[in-house]
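Lab manual, section 2.4: Encoding a predicted structure.

Procedure: take the sequence of the chain (206 residues), apply the prediction step described in section 2.3, and record the output as structure tokens. A sample record is shown.
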Amino acid sequence: LAPLVVLATTAHNGVMLAAAVTLLLVPSRVLACLLSRLFPLNSENPTPEELQKKLLPRALVYSLSASVVYLAAYPILNAMFGTSLLTLGIYLPLLVVEPLLTYRFGRVQETLHKAVSKGLRITVGYALLLVLLGCVREWLAAGTMFGVVVSRPVLPMASMPAGGFIVLGVLCAVWRALAARRKAYLVREARSLVDVHAQKEADGEQ
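Recorded output:
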């Protein structure tokens, strides 16, 4: 949550963070997937002895591989954003221990295809959330969007971490409500199709 609530205070910051996540997440996930095969977890419920023996090396593999990818990605980010990148401070290098990158080390070994596909989906979702949250918070706090005035400030505290938690909570609530409505709609459609199919079968038997 740190990049979201602390740094994604403007649309520009959101774009910089999204670019960083895009460059980091999939390559580091693929690299860690390949390297972690040196310490495989072959069962869904490994024994405590196996966990003790393999979790620490796997944790180091995931963090160090993300660090290597970060060293390669930073010059690209610097060329894209220049000194603006300094506004992200220590939170940019802290992305190498972002849970999105490291939480998998205690799980069963990923396949390369799964690492790429899940990495791409998470990257797209997280990057969109960073940009959206940055835009909303900038508009609420300053009444601007990418520095262009669009209205009067609505909620100045949106630029603070506390305001970030509030805005993020509201966005999550809206998303969950929309997802629930979508799920309910799909369930109704599926039931209606089943009813129609059952009615046709009954008519055919008659």
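Check your result against the sample. Helices lie at 2-7, 11-35, 48-81, 99-102, 112-142, 161-205.
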